[in-house]
């Protein structure tokens, strides 16, 4: 079953956390000219603290239930991006436990995520040269 009883309640939390985890702080910094800033880090920590509080209040094993639901997938994807850049979840023990539980309980799904995480880790170490691109929306990082 992919839908939990708290699914509707968790949707807003999931969307906010996923957006901040992945888009505002992590992925744009690898591919486009979006610097990581103190305000971005602050937003990320607020999102993680919100998820930590949500997990504490819900008392569930996963984001929306005691079984894996669709709510977990964007959170796992966003969190693996943080792992890829070496971001520690130590300040968020419930988030860390939730993430570790996903990896341990769903090795087949984790194998898919881990492959993507390894690519992101490589992009973090060696950002692609997109200086020849003329993107209509995102600013392009200039090669030094």
UniProtKB/TrEMBL annotation:
Keyword RNA-binding annotated: no
Pfam families registered for this protein in UniProt: GST_C
UniProt EC number: 2.5.1.18
Enzyme class: transferase
Origin superkingdom: Eukaryota
Residue ranges of every copy of the GST C-terminal domain listed in the record: 1-129
Keywords associated with the record: Transferase
Catalytic activity: RX + glutathione = an S-substituted glutathione + a halide anion + H(+)
A molecular function (GO) term: glutathione transferase activity
GO biological process: glutathione metabolic process
Subunit and interaction comment: Homodimer.
Protein's UniProt name: glutathione transferase
């Amino acid at each position: 079953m992919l839908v939990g009883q708290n699914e509707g309640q968790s949707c807003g939390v999931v969307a906010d956390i996923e957006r901040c985890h992945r888009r505002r702080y992590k992925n744009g910094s690898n591919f486009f000219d979006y610097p990581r800033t103190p305000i971005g880090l602050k937003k990320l920590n607020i999102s993680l603290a919100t998820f930590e509080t949500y997990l504490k209040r819900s008392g569930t094993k996963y984001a929306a239930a005691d079984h894996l639901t669709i709510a977990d997938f964007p959170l796992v994807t966003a969190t693996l991006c943080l792992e890829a850049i070496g971001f520690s979840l130590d300040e968020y023990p419930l988030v860390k436990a939730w993430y570790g539980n996903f990896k341990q309980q769903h090795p087949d799904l984790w194998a898919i995520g881990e492959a993507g995480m390894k690519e992101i880790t490589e992009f973090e170490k060696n950002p692609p040269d997109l200086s020849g691109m003329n993107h209509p929306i995102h600013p392009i990082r200039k090669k030094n």
